Amino acid sequence: MGGQPREHWQSKIGFVLATAGSAVGLGNIWRFPTAVGLNGGGAFVLLYLVLIFLVGIPLMIVELTLGRRSQRNVIGTFKVLKPGTPWWATGVLGVAAAFVILSFYSVIAGWSLAYIFKFVFGRFADVAPSAIQAQFDALTGDPVMPLLWHGLFMALTVGVVVSGVAKGIERWSRILMPVLLVLLIVLALRSMTLEGAREGVFWLLRPDFARLDVAAALGALGQVFFSLSLGMGAILTYGSYLSRGENIPGSAVYIALTDVAIAMLAALTIIPAVFAFGLDVEVGPPLIFITLPAVFQSMPLGNLFGSLFFILLSIAALTSAISLLEVVVAYFLDELGWKRAAAAVLGGSSIFLLGIPASLSRGIWSGVRLFGLTALDLADYVSSNILLPLGGLLTVVFLGWAWGTQRALREIRRDDTPFVLGGVWAFMVRWLAPLVMAYILISGLWNP
Ligand code: PHE
Q: I want to staple 77 with a disulfide (CB 3.0 to 4.6 A). Which of 70, 119, 300, 309 is the partner?
C-alpha cells in the first residue's frame, strides 16, 4: 500500500469532464464510423444504441460505484471489497487490457499527430481521394516515421500522467471538448450537403437487419465497451478519485450521452462523405484518414480546418490515453508503493514497445497475420471484442452477486443523493446486463 495520500478531483465538473475525456476519443471519431462501415450501417447503429442503455450505462454506474467505495485501483478494488477471493483476477484482466489497448491506440493517435503537419504544410491541397489514400499508405507503410509519432504520443501521455490527473487535464478538457463539438457540427453539415451524400445518410439511418449477424452484434457490444472506456477499470479508477457527494447515476448518463452524440456526429460526417466521393465504406481502419482530408479539401480554408481537426482529435485521444495509462499507474502506486513518475515512465515505455508490431502492421509486417488479422487489427479485435466484454461481465456479476446491489445502492445514495431508478438498475445489473453480455459474447465468438 503506497504511502502517498490519494489524489481527488478538484471539482464535480472536473470529474465529469475528465471522465467524458476518457470516453470521447478515437473510439468515437475513428473506430465508430469504421465499425459502422464494416457492419452494414443502420441496423448496427440501432443495436449499438440499445446496448448503450442495456449494458453501457448500467456498467458505468457499477464501475464508478466500486471505485468510489474502494478508493483503490482496479486490482485493489476487488481485493478490498472481497478479500481472500480470486475476484482480483478481474482486475488483472483490466490492467492487461489497458496495456494492449494503449499499445495500438497510441499508434493510431500517432497518425493523427502526423496529419496535423500534413495539413499545416498543405500536403493534401488539390489532390484526388486516391492520392490521399496513397499518402496515407506511404505514411503508415514506412517503418520508422509512424514509430516516431507513436513514441511522441506516448511521451505526451506519460508527461501528463506524471504531473497527476487533476489540474491540467481538467482545465484542458473544459475548453477543448466544446471546440471539438462545434467543429464536428460544422463538418457534419458540410459533409451531408456534399453532392451525393444523401445516400450515405440513408445508409446510416436505414436499418438493414439482414446485415445483423452475431459477429456484428459482438462488434456493437465491443464498440460500446471501447467507446465508453468500460470493462477494464478506467472508469473504476476515475471513480476512485471521487471523494463523496457526486451523483454517480446522473454523471454516468450525462457522460454516456455525450459520448454517443459525438460518435453519431462523427459517423454523420464521415459516411456521407464516403458516398459523395465514391469511396469504399468497408476499408476499415484507414477510413477517416482518407475521407476526412477529402471533405476538408472541398471546403474553403480546408487546410486550416484540417489542422484544427487533427489537433483536436489528437487531444481527444490524449485524454483517453491518459485514462488508460492511469489504470496501470494507479496499480503500481496503490499496490506496490511506487512513485507516480517511475510508474508512468516504466508503464509508458513498455506500452511503446508493445505497440511496435501494430505500428509496423501496415508496412513491413503487413504479411504477419493471425486469423487473417494484422497485429493492429488483432490487438483491436481481441481487446474490444473479448477482453473488455469479459471484464465487464465479471465486473457486473461481481457487483450483482458477490458484493451485492444493496451495498452498492447504499454507496450511491450516500449523502442523500437521489437514485429513483435504483431498483431498475439493480435488476439490470443482476440479470439483464449479464445475460445480454454473455449471450452476445458466447454466440459471437462461437461463430467467427
Ligand atoms: N473510450 C476511449 C475512446 O473512445 C478509448 C478507451 C478505451 C479509453 C478503454 C479508456 C479505456 O477513444
A: 70
